[in-house]
């Protein structure tokens, strides 16, 4: 799948520091316990609908995020120079944990972008790389992204937390193009992102009560329906096969 989706990067949970996992996952539970996540009213094809997920936007003070004609304002995380105050101390601790996760994901994203740029350079340049005080760090003729541009593409200033319990949804749609089975979230893309912006995602599944297997559940060849998957497709393209990647506790993925 790397050939069809070269800008999709998966980092398994084992590559993330254990202490960061602990703090971030406790932060998810804290915000959920305090009722900090809400379903938002959005407008889709002229109709006002509630989002299927509960959400909260955390980030740099004053930042906003607009999606489907609804603008969210950040709950500020305690970055240097801010004077954020919280109704509960552990909410502040949770926001600090997501700030730490954001800083970690920025580093990982920048590294992935640099690796991607290096691959592009290797494919384009047929001359040796020149490194010196009076020479560019890349091969002659290469006009790929410079270091400043890469940092800008990885300079995340907010995180959007989405929480969903598919078991509480009355109806799950069938995936219409690739036979992937039931979909908790329909195909969508964010038209408000700045062009060439990167996106980083951390996956956490809260433990729920175990359910007995049903004989009526269809078997999906090639993937375990009890494991949360994230689906990818090329925008406005149903010829290129879609991709469903299993996500385990603490896995991350990056869309570059």
Automatic annotation (TrEMBL):
Keywords: Cytoplasm, Dioxygenase, Iron, Metal-binding, Nucleus, Oxidoreductase. InterPro entries: AlkB-like_sf (IPR037151), FTO (IPR032868), FTO_cat_dom (IPR024367). GO terms for molecular function: broad specificity oxidative DNA demethylase activity; ferrous iron binding; mRNA N6-methyladenosine dioxygenase activity. Residues 1-256 form the Alpha-ketoglutarate-dependent dioxygenase FTO catalytic domain. Its cofactor is Fe(2+). It is found in: Cytoplasm; Nucleus speckle. The keyword Metal-binding applies. One of its GO terms (cellular component) is nuclear speck. Pfam families: FTO_NTD. One of its GO terms (biological process) is DNA alkylation repair. It comes from the Eukaryota. Its EC number is 1.14.11.53. It catalyses: an N(6)-methyladenosine in mRNA + 2-oxoglutarate + O2 = an adenosine in mRNA + formaldehyde + succinate + CO2; a 5'-end (N(7)-methyl 5'-triphosphoguanosine)-(N(6),2'-O-dimethyladenosine) in U6 snRNA + 2-oxoglutarate + O2 = a 5'-end (N(7)-methyl 5'-triphosphoguanosine)-(2'-O-methyladenosine) in U6 snRNA + formaldehyde + succinate + CO2; N(6)-methyladenosine in U6 snRNA + 2-oxoglutarate + O2 = adenosine in U6 snRNA + formaldehyde + succinate + CO2; a 5'-end (N(7)-methyl 5'-triphosphoguanosine)-(N(6),2'-O-dimethyladenosine) in mRNA + 2-oxoglutarate + O2 = a 5'-end (N(7)-methyl 5'-triphosphoguanosine)-(2'-O-methyladenosine) in mRNA + formaldehyde + succinate + CO2. Monomer. May also exist as homodimer. Belongs to the fto family. This is Alpha-ketoglutarate-dependent dioxygenase FTO. It comes from Galemys pyrenaicus.
């Amino acid at each position: 799948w790397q050939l069809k989706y070269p800008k999709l990067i998966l980092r398994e949970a084992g590559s993330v520091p254990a202490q960061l996992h602990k703090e971030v996952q406790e932060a998810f539970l804290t915000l959920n316990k305090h009722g900090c996540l809400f379903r938002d009213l959005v407008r889709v094809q002229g109709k006002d609908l509630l989002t299927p997920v509960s959400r909260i936007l955390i980030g740099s003070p004053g930042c906003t995020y607009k999606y489907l004609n609804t603008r969210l304002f950040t709950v500020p995380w305690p970055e240097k120079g801010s004077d954020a105050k919280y109704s509960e101390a552990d909410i502040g601790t949770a926001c600090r944990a997501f700030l730490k996760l954001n800083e970690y994901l920025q580093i990982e994203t920048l590294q992935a972008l640099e690796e991607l740029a290096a691959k592009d350079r290797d494919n384009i340049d047929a001359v040796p790389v020149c490194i010196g005080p009076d020479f560019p760090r890349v091969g002659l003729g290469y006009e790929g992204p410079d270091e400043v541009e890469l940092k800008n593409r990885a300079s995340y200033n907010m995180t959007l937390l989405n929480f969903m319990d598919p078991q509480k949804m009355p109806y799950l749609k069938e995936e219409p193009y690739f036979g992937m089975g039931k979909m908790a979230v329909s195909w969508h893309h964010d038209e408000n992102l700045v062009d060439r912006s990167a996106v980083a995602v951390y996956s956490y599944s809260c433990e729920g009560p175990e359910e007995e297997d049903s004989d009526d559940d269809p078997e999906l060849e090639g993937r375990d329906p009890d494991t949360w998957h994230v689906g990818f497709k090329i925008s406005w393209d149903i010829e290129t096969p879609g991709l469903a990647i299993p996500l385990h506790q603490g896995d991350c993925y990056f869309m570059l």
